[in-house]
Amino acid sequence: SKETTLSQLFLTFHGIPYPVTMCTQETFQALDDFEARGDDVLLASYPKCGSNWILHIVSELIFAVSKKKYACPEFPVLECGDAEKYQKSVRRMKRFPSPRILTTHLHYDKLPQSIITNKVKILVIFRNPKDTAVSFFHFHNDVPDIPSYASWDEFFKQFIKGQVSWGSYFDFAINWNKHIDDENVKFILYEDLKENLVVGIKEISEFLGFSLTDEQIEAVSAQSTFQAMRANSQETHGAIGPFLFRKGEVGDWKSLFTETQNQEMDERFKECLAGTALGDKLKY
Ligand code: A3P
């Protein structure tokens, strides 16, 4: 049954709630010893900000420069999986040729030390918090084997409090905002990619130091539209595919937010991000 009590949902590690179905204490401890390579690429995001989109784009870019094909299941989120699964991924990743792609929903200051020491290039994908919340709500309630919420209102309350998987969107944003000007860090906005995918992909490609022709960039772009990714989603992501590629739009929050919730979110956004580099950048 999808009936659950919230206290059973989370494992709290260093003050942040993570889903017990996906994360374990042992894996968090093992992460301390993760060996990043200097030429790894890390994709960091709060859940539902478009991590699978950017993973696909970066995989296609790497394929275009090296003809090396990445299969998505090869790239579990760094902190997900029990100890055994994690060790298996680590062994498999050791055999991968560079550049490898890593993905995470962790705060910057919770990353394995080797990622910082090796100055791994980091792409951080952000999305406005309203659409992120709506996408997260649907994800919980659509996917059969994860806990669902009684209502949107209930989810919204927990989201604002940060009592959801991977904790508060705002804490995540505040934490990463401190690194917005780091040389090895680039922020990408979901809304910017929606507005101009070709330009966004070109920027990502340049940040990664690839030199691709306009034709190559356009080819990657054509394969990275929502329609293209959704059409292939069962093949690329299995049964969960159609849930991961649900709607793919900017402004879907209007379908669920009440006016009071809208004001509450605006207030929270102001408190946490007004006047910060990320707050100014985020299309909102
Ligand atoms: P919606 O639920 O609003 O449709 P993540 O990959 O981080 O879990 O994020 C999932 C969200 O990104 C979903 O949002 C999904 O539809 C959207 N998404 C994935 N691929 C996309 C694409 N190519 N274009 C636009 N949105 C995309």
From TrEMBL:
SUPFAM superfamilies: P-loop containing nucleoside triphosphate hydrolases. Its main location: cytoplasm. PANTHER family: SULFOTRANSFERASE SULT. InterPro entries: P-loop_NTPase (IPR027417), Sulfotransferase_dom (IPR000863). It is found in: Cytoplasm. It comes from the Eukaryota. Its EC number is 2.8.2.-. This is Sulfotransferase. Belongs to the sulfotransferase 1 family. Keywords: Cytoplasm, Transferase. Residues 39-276 form the Sulfotransferase domain. It is an enzyme of class 2 (transferase). The keyword Transferase applies.
